[in-house]
């Protein structure tokens, strides 16, 4: 039996620029995307998210554009 991964479309802001991606694999990480597009400051250390080397800062905004609490996904 062949398993087909559901790809997704994503839209997000990166350094004040809107990024729209189509057909993103659920296996691709944000770290992989950043490094493939030239943002090489984020590193992969342990590969598990425990050491913090791959941490990026996410800042959301509400409907009025006010910043929301910062999140640190890894």
Automatic annotation (TrEMBL):
SUPFAM superfamilies: 2Fe-2S ferredoxin-like
InterPro entries attached to this UniProt entry: 2Fe-2S_ferredoxin-like_sf, 2Fe-2S_ferredoxin-type, 2Fe2S_fd_BS, Beta-grasp_dom_sf
GO molecular function: 2 iron, 2 sulfur cluster binding
Domain 2Fe-2S ferredoxin-type: 24-61
Name by which UniProt lists this protein: 2Fe-2S iron-sulfur cluster binding domain-containing protein
Gene3D superfamilies listed in its UniProt record: 3.10.20.30
Pfam families membership: Fer2
Source domain of life: Bacteria
Coiled coil: none
């Amino acid at each position: 039996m062949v398993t087909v991964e559901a790809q997704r479309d994503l839209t997000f802001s990166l350094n004040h620029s809107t990024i729209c991606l189509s057909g993103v694999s659920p296996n691709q990480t944000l770290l992989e995307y950043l490094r493939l597009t030239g943002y090489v400051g984020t590193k992969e250390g342990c590969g598990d998210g425990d050491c913090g080397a791959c941490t990026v800062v996410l800042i959301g905004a509400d409907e009025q554009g006010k910043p929301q609490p910062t999140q640190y996904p890894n």
